[in-house]
Amino acid sequence: MSLTSKNAIVATYLSTHGQAIAAHEHMGVEDIRSGLDAGRMALLANPAHKNVSPTLIGQPARVKVNANIGTSPMINNVEMEVQKLRLAEKAGAHTVMDLSTAGDLDVVRVSMLEASPLPLGTVPLYSVAQPYVARGQDPSDFTVQELLEEIEKQAEQGVDFMTLHCGVTARGAAMASDGRRILGIVSRGGALMARWMKRRNVENPLLTHYDDLLKICLKHNVTISLGDGLRPGAGADAGDAAQWEEVSVLGDLARRAVEHGVQIMIEGPGHVPLHLVQSQIQGIKRLTNNAPLYVLGPLTTDAAAGYDHIAGAIGGAQAAFYGADFLCYLTPAEHVTLPGPEDVWDGVKASLIAAQSAENSLGRPWAVERDLAISKARAALDWEAMADNALDPHTLRKRRKDFHQEKECAMCGSFCAIRMLEGVDEAMIVCKKHD
Length: 435
Description:
Layout: H1 3-6, H2 8-25, H3 29-38, E1 42-44, E2 55-57, E3 64-69, H4 78-91, E4 95-98, H5 105-115, E5 120-122, H6 124-134, H7 144-157, E6 161-164, H8 170-177, H9 188-200, H10 205-208, H11 210-220, E7 223-226, H12 241-259, E8 264-267, H13 277-287, E9 293-296, H14 308-321, E10 326-328, H15 341-361, H16 365-379, H17 383-389, H18 393-400, H19 417-420, H20 424-434
Parallel strand pairs: 3-4, 3-10, 4-5, 5-6, 6-7, 7-8, 8-9, 9-10
Antiparallel strand pairs: 1-2
């Protein structure tokens, strides 16, 4: 049986929203159904999330962009997080993830679900560990039952996709933390799960109880985003044994999920030197049966602190060109502090630039048409048309505000190259007549 025949919720969304989704993605409904059945695509939409906008992940559909937000133990302001969510939506993000680790996490999560139709993702492991941290206890003191109950609760609240670190095996965690790596385990969820296993000398409960997760997620159409808990956090660690150990496990888990009618995504690498991006993306895709690939960046250099949204956009463009389906943004605050509203805006725009760059190179009609339209507008010095086709119309208009009455830009003025040859032919005709 196919995924859509086992997952009644996905089948219903295809019936009610399929034509609109297909038109937006420049695809046929049956092509989308085929992609979903094969596990090459995922349709993010939990019916408990009121007014959710069903969002298709998986090329050749449009490359999507996610924005991470959420509280931290040092900066805990729910109102600011909702503001960041709305800014992310306004900037053009297709989904949002709540990575909150401080405050009343249920209030934060429900507030976000009520504030936006964008599909919402979470990391349930944070919510299980947070009460223990708040009480000064070990963050890995939680039980398996508590973890499963938290996942089910969030599914009932309306969370559309969840990062679950099912592929962090005891073997893989040992490989990543025994000194072979420059930077060890950099994923919070991966490190937490490794700590849980090491303290008990047992295997990952998300792996041993995987069938229980599948039942919960099928019931609510929660897409499992198989977390990259052992992703490289330094370029020098990219492609090591620990990373590929996890990826190989994720491939098997992705196959099992699709067989049960559960939608799946694979989370991809973090820090990858530019010359390795192609092999990383294609290798992960191959080992995971071409499941939708959700990448953080990747960052092509480790030295861009304060500008990691740029490093991530460089890697993201390459990654999407070689097959990544879903770009998780990075902001200028990455590795430094909790992003503020302005960081969120910059991060979304940087990832949208990466997606546009890749899709234009892939010949996707919406991207090619956009680039062509803005080029024609520049040729005509049509500033409104330029703004209409820009990825950030707001910034274009803001930059031009002081000289908006001028035909030329303030860089060139009367030296404008586009206008330099205007009237030259007519002038030469007049000159010849006088001669």
